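Q: I have 224 residues here and want to know how they pack in 3D. Can you give me a structure?
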Amino acid sequence: MSKLQTIQNTALRIATGCTADTNTHHLHQETLVLPLPAHLRLHASQLKEKTKLPYHPLHSLRMQPKPHRLKKITIFQENNDYTTEIKTNSQNIELAAITNNMKQIHTEIVHQHIQSIPDNNILKTKAPDIDKSENTLSRSTRTLLAQLRTGKSPFLLTWKHKINPTKYISPLCPLCGTSEHNTEHIFNCTHIPLTLEVGDLWHTPGEVEGLLETWQGKLDSLLM
């Protein structure tokens, strides 16, 4: 499982364009992809729920006798740690009830995963959902936004200074020279007045794109 999870995390880094030192919680939150243990638990639980129907091909597995010798338990045995189960009235098993239970299982497992995600380092609280308007932006912009939401991006001098302090001697903002050039400072630098806030990285990504273009223009002019 550990090796498979590493492969999944690598794929999510490629998909989001996030840096190698980005924490894995951020990757799963950005892509709305469950970690493999939670993903497998979800599908195993829903499969087990469907087998409550008498005509399901695996229904007979729910009534297996207890093995005579010690064996690894399956998802169909009681009190196992592999599934989440919702009690159903055995006298009134209908497809509609099973379908509703499967939805509840999905909601419960996803909720448990969301609650396990630590506070975002930029917001110092739980990160909100990303506005769907971001889907209309270019991949390069979405990649940059995903990086900024975790505070680790080649766009930031603080990150460049951390990775290569020899080449990037100072982490300070090249415009004001008083504060570190990090995600929070992009929204607070006195040399670029604006009304946006850090939370707009999630709420209004399209407007943040305009801010980043302004920043890039200012930084490019310093190098000319």
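Q: Anything worth noting?
A: The CA atoms of residues 106 and 125 lie 24 Å apart. The chain has two domains: 34-116, 132-223.
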